[in-house]
Each structure stands twice: as C-alpha cells, then as structure tokens.
Write a structure and sequence with these properties.
Helix content: 40-55%
Low-confidence stretches: none
Number of helices: 5
Mean pLDDT: 84
Strand content: 15-25%
Number of strands: 5
Order of helices and strands: EEEHHHHEEH
C-alpha cells in the first residue's frame, strides 16, 4: 500500500498502529519510482527514516495507553489528556524534522514533504530538475 498516487501528487502511506487522533506510529519506507530522476533513493529513504525515528521515539508506551483507556470510565475521559499531549508533541517533533529536511536536503532536490494526519505528501517545486521531469522547456 505504501505509495498513493493522486492527481495532486504522491502520498506516502502510514503503517503500523494509529493513535486515537489518527497519528501513525510510522510511515512506509518506500521510494516512489517517479522520484528517481529528482532525488537519490538513499537520501529520500533516510529522510523518511528520520521522520519515523522522531515519531517512534516519542510514541506513548503500551502501558501508558492501557492505563489511560482503562481509567476512562472512572475519570470521565480525563485520563486521555496526557496521551493527547504526548501525541501532539510527537506530531510537532515530526513536523520540525520535516521542516528541517525540507530546508536542508529536499528543497534543493526539488521536492518538499508535508505531514498530514495519516500520510506524508510529496510536493514538487518548480526548478530545472522538476521542469525537465515534467517535460517543460526552458523559455529564454
């Protein structure tokens, strides 16, 4: 399932478990063949690995999730607040990693990544690499 192609671009699908708000524990480590002329495979996969590391290193432990869910009836749902805070910080950390990768590595290659609730979107930036990829001629 890893890659979803749509008219607007490419989406990297989530894998593993999802949290209550739709946040995935990790994303598929896949390389869309459409990017082969734009960015090096190893660079792209390393970028996805860094995003996965940012998420999985901050993911709530199973025991915390179990206690929070078991205590929901007794706390009227208040036991889920710490989990919500942790997942919010997890998403913020992943967004920061993506922002850093876009700024330092990916934008130079002609793409950017955007974190959505349960997928990563690959956006193309118009430059000489992507113009030739999409068949656009340089106008002098």
């Amino acid at each position: 399932m890893g890659i979803l192609k749509e008219e607007g671009g490419i989406k990297i699908a989530a894998k593993d478990r999802f949290f209550l708000n739709g946040t995935p524990k990790s994303f598929e480590l896949v390389f869309p063949s459409i990017l082969a002329t734009i960015i090096d495979r190893a660079t792209f996969l390393q970028s996805l690995g860094e995003i996965n590391e940012a998420i999985s290193s901050r993911w709530p432990c199973r025991l915390c999730v179990a206690f929070a869910i078991i205590l929901v009836p007794f706390t009227l749902g208040l036991s889920l607040i710490p989990l919500h805070i942790v997942t919010k910080k997890t998403v913020e950390a992943a967004a920061n990693v993506i922002e850093e990768l876009n700024r330092t590595v990916l934008r130079v290659a002609g793409i950017t990544l955007r974190l959505r609730t349960s997928w990563i979107e690959v956006d193309f930036i118009e430059n000489s690499k992507t113009d030739s990829f999409f068949g656009k001629e340089k106008q002098d």
